[in-house]
């Protein structure tokens, strides 16, 4: 049994397709996306779909879009299993300096800042 998101009176209602109604345009786009092909600003379901390797959302109810990775001193998220981030992972060569906790890992709220691992603290 397959469920689709339909564009009817309430656009975010799950209904079983019986040849009636249309598939919501957002879901239609998400269903056709491949791996590593989405440009920044395009909709995504997980990081693997983005050329930048970051699928980012502003809040728990916003649509996720591909975004650039975080630069040095910008806020970042460590690697998560969900593949969708509130803050992108760091650019190549940088590390996300974060104090990981079990709660933060489960709720995707453990954030840090990108830093160069070769920088020496004085």
Automatic annotation (TrEMBL):
Record CDD domains: CLPS
Recorded superkingdom: Eukaryota
GO molecular function, one term: enzyme activator activity
Domain Colipase N-terminal: 39-70
Secretion signal span: none
Record SUPFAM superfamilies: Colipase-like (SSF57190)
Domain Colipase C-terminal: 74-116
InterPro entries named in the record: CLPS_chr, Colipase, Colipase_C, Colipase_N
Cellular component terms (Gene Ontology): extracellular region
Gene Ontology BP term (one): lipid catabolic process
Keyword vocabulary terms for this entry: Digestion, Disulfide bond, Lipid degradation, Lipid metabolism, Secreted, Signal
Protein location: Secreted
Assembly and interaction partners: Forms a 1:1 stoichiometric complex with pancreatic lipase.
Function: Colipase is a cofactor of pancreatic lipase. It allows the lipase to anchor itself to the lipid-water interface. Without colipase the enzyme is washed off by bile salts, which have an inhibitory effect on the lipase. Enterostatin has a biological activity as a satiety signal.
Protein name: Colipase
Gene for this chain: CLPS
């Amino acid at each position: 049994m397959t469920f689709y998101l339909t564009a009817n009176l309430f656009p975010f209602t799950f209904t079983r397709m019986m040849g009636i109604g249309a598939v919501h345009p957002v879901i239609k786009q998400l269903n056709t996306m491949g791996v590593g092909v989405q440009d920044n600003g395009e909709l995504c379901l997980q990081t693997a779909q983005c050329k930048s390797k970051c699928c980012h959302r502003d809040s728990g109810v916003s649509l996720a879009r591909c975004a650039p990775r975080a630069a040095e001193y910008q806020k970042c998220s460590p690697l998560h299993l969900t593949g969708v981030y509130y803050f992108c992972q760091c650019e190549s060569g940088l590390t996300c300096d974060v104090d990981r906790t079990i709660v933060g890992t489960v709720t995707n709220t453990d954030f840090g800042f990108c830093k160069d691992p070769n920088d020496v603290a004085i």
